[in-house]
Specification:
Blueprint: H1 3-23, H2 30-87, H3 94-103, E1 105-121, E2 124-140, E3 165-174, E4 177-187, H4 188-191, H5 197-204, E5 216-221
Helix pairs in contact: 1-2
């Protein structure tokens, strides 16, 4: 029964009690009815207050839970991006990605524009600008994850033994150009387990722009070239998010 139904039922009971008191109950027993009405009033006030506050409390708690999950997703995303920079591909090997952070190095490059003479024939020589990319050194991938718990990045916060799901694929960005893609996701229902079931159901159907849409919290996409998450910008401003 919803909040409105409970209120209507309580009002109906109160009216019936009042009629019984006036018409049928002896004067010496009316104190019993008064106590019942008082208890009913307290119950009604409590249900109204709870009905108003429950969605507010739910929203605060879900934001806290989601923020922790999103922070983990950002670490995984950054690891996948570095893996792509070094190898040219994304990976779904979780242990391998952690090892990659521990051991891999990323090249440091410098781009210069140089001018070279080009003979066009017939005695025509022109200056042509050419961009030249040189490798000037290497640095550890782990440097980019300093202070971030990447060893446990695949564990979904607030759940028992659950890990993020990873999928990789490819899309044809333009005709003939195949580009690697990835997605990392976890179900909202698992994150919100133990909370009000009716409010969880509403959350799984969320479509508003200031909410995380759908049944998953995710980053990346298999259908388009994207490393973005499906959360609104407000989650990128949460305290404790050390690196974006």
């Amino acid at each position: 029964m919803g909040l409105i139904g409970m209120i209507l039922a309580a009002v109906l009971v109160a009216v019936l009690l009042a009629i019984i008191i006036v018409k049928y109950l002896p004067l010496k027993l009316r104190w019993i009815a008064s106590i019942l009405l008082l208890v009913l009033s307290v119950f009604l006030i409590y249900k109204i207050y709870y009905g108003i506050m429950q969605p507010i409390i739910f929203n605060k708690q879900k934001v806290t839970k989601y923020a922790k999950v999103i922070n983990q997703l950002k670490i995984i995303r950054d690891a996948e991006v570095k893996h792509f920079e070094v190898t040219g591909n994304y990976t779904k090997d979780k242990a391998g990605l952690i090892k990659f952070i521990d051991t891999a190095q990323v090249a440091l490059t410098e781009t210069k524009t140089i001018v070279e003479k080009e003979d066009r024939g017939g005695g025509i020589i022109i200056d042509v600008e050419i961009r030249k990319i040189d490798t000037i050194g290497y640095e550890s991938v782990a440097k980019y994850f300093k202070g971030r718990n990447y060893q446990d990045m695949f564990k979904v916060p607030g759940t028992e033994g659950k890990e993020f799901d990873i999928e990789i694929g490819t899309v044809e960005k333009v005709q003939g150009l195949i580009v690697p893609t990835f997605i990392v996701k976890t179900e909202k229902a698992g994150i919100l387990k133990g909370m009000d079931s009716s409010l969880i159901k509403q959350e799984l159907e969320a479509i508003a722009t200031d909410q995380i849409k759908g049944e998953f919290v995710s980053v990346g996409s298999l259908d388009e070239v994207s490393t973005g998450g499906n959360w609104p910008p407000s989650y990128d401003k949460k305290a404790g998010d050390k690196k974006e």
